[in-house]
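Async update (no meeting this week)

Hi team, since we skipped the sync, here's where things stand on the single-chain job. The sequence we agreed to prioritize is pasted below, unchanged from the tracker. I ran it this morning and attached the output directly underneath so nobody has to dig for it. Comments welcome in thread, and please keep replies under the output.
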Amino acid sequence: MKRVSNPPNPWHSTHVEWLDEPPEAELDIYEEDAKSLLSENKSPDLSFRFSVNPYRGCQHACSYCYARPSHQYLGFGAGTDFELKLIVKRNAPALLRQELSRRSWQRERIVFSGNTDCYQPIEASYALTRGCLEACLEHQTPVGIITKSALVRRDIDLLQQLARGPGAHVFVSIAFLDERTCRKLDPGAPTPAKRFEVLRALHEAGIPTGVSVLPLIPGLNEPDIAGILERAAECGATQAFMTLLRLPSELLEVFFERIRASLPEREQKIVSALKDMRGGGLKESRFGARMSGSGPRWDAVRGLFDLQCRRLGLNPREEAKAFDEAKPQPRPRQGELF
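Output:
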């Protein structure tokens, strides 16, 4: 990796209208020429097989991001390093074109991103995600996107072409209705109101959309579930999924440090509620169990989610069946909407 002395500033770009205010802390950006781009997922918890991550680390700085521990593989920390020391795979579009040109490529769905947000603010300057989407369109490869960013609207033209051709679906992650809570735990991400605007804009452009209530933080955002689903449906979302808070390795310490600093009155409620859903513990790493919970409290929340989805017409059977038929192999757990 090579540290960039004067990285491009997305707030000085032509795409500044898609971004919120710049963060107070300065970034360290490192550029690298990656050797491969397509990541193959072997987890039975996820339905998609391939994902693309143009960036490592994430400016959105979400306190609960399960990808934080992966930053330690690079010699950085899972805390502030994750949001301030970003790695840019500058050759991502060219590399993806090479990989999609192989005779062995079967045009399976690619998810952006399996790790960090592909539309975080530096994408406004680097445009690596846009370049990768262009490569997918050229090679008639369907895509799925999960993002919190309003910057995805910049690429509506490409997403429309993909939706009319091989296929495209965009999920917008919304975990909170209250802007104050969102700012404390997602300090670098757009407000909930802006994310709902993104859903509406994508829907009006004819792009299939969904909402991910991700993560469910018991003792904090359970009351928001019904409202998030209702507003998402009003904005045109037709799909929805939810996962329970995951706290792998060092993320446990990072998350509760942020809770103590920003929402100290909630710490014990979250601990108690999470233990209710995790069989008395705070972590769960087993496949098939790490993204969902167990026990009466989880059953009640899951029941509310499913009831609201049925009431609002989210996850209709015919659409879910279409997605199932497009999968390379059946994987019935979380993420099945891709």
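Quick observations from my side:
Residues 320-335 have pLDDT under 50 and may be disordered.
The two ends are 32 Å apart (CA to CA).
Reply here if anything looks off.
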